[in-house]
Amino acid sequence: MASRYDSHTQPSPEPLWREVTGRVLRRHRHERGERLVETARRAGVSSQYLSEIERGRKDASSELLAAVVGALELSLLDLAREVAAELARVESVVGAVRGAGAAARPVTLRSIPAAAQPIVPLSRMRGPVALAA
């Protein structure tokens, strides 16, 4: 039996919110030149848990996200905007590859022009992609 997300039968799925959130948090921490333990200490969480969040393995509560973004001198609104912008970019790239009215087909990195390739690796995306007209 084929997997629900079989690349031969299903369109490429979009990334999970927690995965994109983790990448945004990690990027900001790296931009600040901080180690995981430093940011975790200021946020009041364990470095192991922050690592799980950054890798998209844990869904953090809003309270915990507020503590982490505060430690990074961001706001929840900053985080939400960046995550939404990355998700919108992925959606627009997938939509452009498929073309208006085209039949659903798997999207591969070879089918996306190099300049438009998403920040999110297509192999890490989950679930069906919904495109707005």
What does this structure look like?
The protein is an all-alpha fold and 133 residues long. Helix content is 48%, strand content 0%. It has five helices and no strands. Helix 1 packs across helix 5, helix 2 crosses helix 3 and helix 2 packs across helix 4. The longest helix has 23 residues. The radius of gyration is 17 Å and the shape is elongated. The two termini are 33 Å apart. The N terminus and C terminus are likely disordered.
**Main sheet summary:** none
Class of secondary structure makeup = mainly alpha
**Total number of strands:** 0
User: Which stretches are low in confidence, meaning pLDDT under 50 for 5 or more residues running?
Assistant: 1-9, 129-133
* Radius of gyration of CA atoms, rounded to a whole number: 17 Å
What portion of the residues fall into strands of 2 or more residues? under 5%
Cα distance spanning the termini: 33 Å
Number of helices: 5
| Percent range of helical residues | 40-55%
Order of helices and strands: HHHHH
Shape: elongated
Mean pLDDT: 77
